[in-house]
Amino acid sequence: MKVLHSWLAEYIVGLDDHPVGSDPVALGDVMSDIGLCCEEVELLGRGLDGIVVAQVLELAPHPGADRIQLVQVDAGDGEPLQICCGAFNMAVGDRVPLATLGTVMPDGMEIARRKLRGEWSNGMLCSARELGLGDDHGGIWILPGDPGVPLGTAIRDALGIEADALYDLDLTPNRPDALSVIGIARDVAAQLGLTFRLPGIELAPALADAASLASISISDPGLCGRFTARVLSDVPSGSSPEWMQRRLALCGMRPISAVVDVSNYVMLEYGQPNHTYDLAKVGGSHLGVRRARSGESIVTLDGQSRGLDSDDGVIVDGNDTPIGLAGVMGGASTEISDTTGDVLVELAWWDPASIGRTSKRHGLRSRPGPVREGVDPEIASAAADRIAQLLCDMGRPCTPVSCAQTATPPPAVSVRVRPSRVNALLGASIATDEMVSILTPLGFECTPDGDDLAVRIPSWRPDSTGEVDVVEEIARHYGYDRLGKTVPASPQAGALTARQADIRALHAYVSSQGAFEATPMPFLAPGDLERCGVRADGVVVANPLVNEESILRTSLLPGLLKAVGHNAAHRSVGVTLYEHGHCFAQALDGGLPQEWEEFAVVLAGRDAVAAVALARGIAESLGVTGRGGALEADRRAPPRSVGRGRRRWCAHRRGRRGRPRCCRGVWGVRASGLRPVSRMPSSDVDLAFVVADEIAVDEVEATIRATAGESLVSVALFDVYRGAGLGDDVRSLAYRLRLQARDRTLTDAEVGAIREQVIAAVASTHAATLRG
Amino acid sequence: MMAAMNSPDASVDVHELLDRVRRLAADGPATIAAAATVDELRRLDGEFLGKTSVMSQAKAAMRFVAPEDRKSVGGLLNEVRTALEAAIGQRQSAFDSDARRERLAAEALDLSEVMDAAPTGHRHLISQTREMLEDAFVGLGFTVAEGPEIETDWYNFEALNMPEGHPARSMWDTLYLEAGEPESVLLRTHTSPVQIRTMLREEPPIYVVAPGRAYRSDTADATHLPVFSQIEGLVIDRGITFADLAGTIETFVKLLYGSERTTRLRPSFFPFTEPSAEFDMSTPSGEWVELGGCGMVHPNVLRAGGLDPEEWSGFAFGFGLERMAMQRHGLDDIRELITNDVRFLAQF
Fold this sequence. Notes:
Chain A is an alpha+beta fold. Chain A has 19 helices and 35 strands. A five-stranded antiparallel sheet of chain A has the order 5-4-3-6-9. In chain A, strands 11-14-17-18-19 form a five-stranded mixed sheet. The longest helix of chain A has 19 residues, at about 750-765. The radius of gyration of chain A is 40 Å and the shape is elongated. Helix content of chain B is about 40%, strand content about 20%. Chain B has a seven-stranded mixed sheet with strand order 1-4-5-9-8-7-6, with helices on both faces. The radius of gyration of chain B is 44 Å and the shape is rod-shaped. The relative contact order of chain B is 0.10. Chains A and B meet through helix 8, helix 11, helix 13, helix 14 and strand 25 of A and helix 5, strand 1, strand 5, helix 8 and strand 6 of B.
């Protein structure tokens, strides 16, 4: 929301005499302090010294340059003055702004007499943007012709520009009242302790009876709480006054015509959206409000034909034909034109929720405005008067005015406020009197009720419905910076859970092993899951921005492989990446989708052996080796490739026959319980078994562990041998078992017995033989 | 000193032996020091101190020395032997250190020729930022709460004081999932649903932070990502005030950025807190940087969490980890954080 200082000053008595109010930069800070976040203060009308009104006398091509023309202007002394100009939009007789020699432009550039390709230029003709007076940079600003203004007049005087400031406010959705000049003025006046006053309006009495000109009916009161209309006869045609155009342009609205400009001006000023109809085009001179019927359609002002459904509110004419999308956009059929004589103005209070749904459905949700956030239901009549007055002020009396109004807006709300509660929540000790003096100028009427206050919520604050809303009002205007800073003492000792600590340890271990943590987005393109060979029941995003991001991952693998591909494409080959994140899959039973955490590492340019070693290291670092965890080496999985199918980037490269190609670990819990370290001597037993290739090492180790019993401290595979002396499709696995008791030295007989049991178990379970 | 010798065995001339010992005492050390090789030293060792040496003979001849002289003669022999042994030891250690020096010279390595570095990986900048914040809050007596990234409309909006059709819902561009009723299941747009989950799971007092990922239907640009990280704080206890909120924010900012920093709160709006505020931190150059949003937990949110707003009050705050990380490291494009390019990742 953009608001002009001069516009605010009309409604805040003494703003420019106030030490803070007269300084736009300081006033911007005040606005931020009360929650009207001021993002920028643009100082206007500064730096216009030396800019005068000049008239184009003659246009001639520059003999040495195609993109420059020679313009002779009269800057007030009757003598032609030559200017070189790069714009071609002016005609002889146009009045244009001229920056005379010595002028310092708003951007700091000083205008000097210069020769351009051999021709003298004695100044510069300016666009509106170069002067900081508008956004137009399409050419030289052709000033509105007013023969009464002598040439050479300072442009500030010619345009009636006073030093002004434009505040750009970033407003929050709870403050629909601040989407209007008067709403901001009311808030600022209260904070500065100045008086706020509404525009004074004096209208000639209506000459005709409302009912004879137009009629209104509301058939859905839930959609439209109040509907006010005025007929303005014989409205002025042509453009609105310069000052109004300027204000509209600065606030971001394009001036169009007198009627439309006044409509927009009052919308900005009162925050009351309104719509103007060419009365002659409204069938039956009647406006009705109802829900649309499915199958109906309407062509809106933007020229689009829109199909309607029964949730849309529409405005219909006397023939029950939709002529407007309620509270969202008007229809093309009744648009104001140059030939419009009588205007029907509609000012309505619409149910914000229905309007929200309609604007969303029709893709018109981009501009939050007072309609959606909630308009002051009491302001319509005053705004209608203001529209009439501004049109009347344009010189042609456009009365009679007629009025119709119906239905009932939401009732006024009264809230019980406990001053003790206010102070308890704020950690403050604000006197009840001070609360009253903060609330009253904001329109919150306070009536003492015992120790409490009965506070009547003003109609323009639909966001306020309870005690805590009033607490916020008090805090906002009391000043957040005046409230204290204390630190509550947590009664608990802060700590990470064991699981959170484990995950930290996992990150620390894996990154210490040379892996980089990647954070790919969890969105995948259709087919990615299938291409990676992971489960394909990914959850589908109903409203993705792009199709490539429409599936949620069921595994971290696709995202990591894409990241490997990105690195390879940038000549970082052989990277090790890891990720810890959530994965998702479709619901099993129609309930919520499944969600779980995964931790994954991809080793590019390394073989699966390295992956398994890392996986074992991870298990070790988590303390789950051989206990409570499982490491599953998939030895038959096909190699998987990445990106453009280049084997080089395989996450799990084809290993030697019989070697695992990919591995997967599942570790749910950290093994708990410390194993005491034995002080007794230990014995090592070395055993080599000849085992068939299809039997996994893990299976053999599991058998050893199961058989050796409690005395087994560790078992390590220290050699794998294939070749001479062994048969085909077998290999020798050499293990070292360390045996140790906690409380005594194991006897040779005990060690021997364990050794025999292990040999027997491995031999019988895996058809293995002891290698002699 | 030298007493009369009593020599019943004519073959042993004690005087002559003692003369030789004295000569050895005079010349021996110099001879030993002049030994050129280890072998020569070993030979001298045998010659001077071995079984057939003068010293051994002299020792054997002690029995011919008159008893009253034995003490002085024995003292002489010990003195000489000690001196000789010391000289040999000294010479031997000189040989040893020469040998060590030669071996070291032969084995010298140019360590600057080592080309391989031990592999070092890196945690992602966002994880580092998250841990730093978690640690700061753990130090203030908070625990770390977590929640799912797929949420229902109830947790993400309704329980947070945004019933169906509430205008504030438009503050978030929500990504909905094809599950259940249309627009009933979504990717959480903020970490705030964890507030509700924590209140429903735990009894107050509650002091938690909840870091995690959140999602918005935003096209990635220099300042936005569709997936980003937030950290949420929630304190619920008896008598918690707005001043407690302001003080907690000031404390953790000082903890993370240094005690010279201050903070300020500016009025703002979030449906789930009231009064609401944005919080800013002062910079060394005297400017204010916006960090995040906060406020007193709205009574409707406490009720949704099963708590009585008359008994309990609390505050909540939240902010984006990406922005904080970018500020710390001077990054100007948030998309760098998701390229997963090791040339970027290796810098943090």
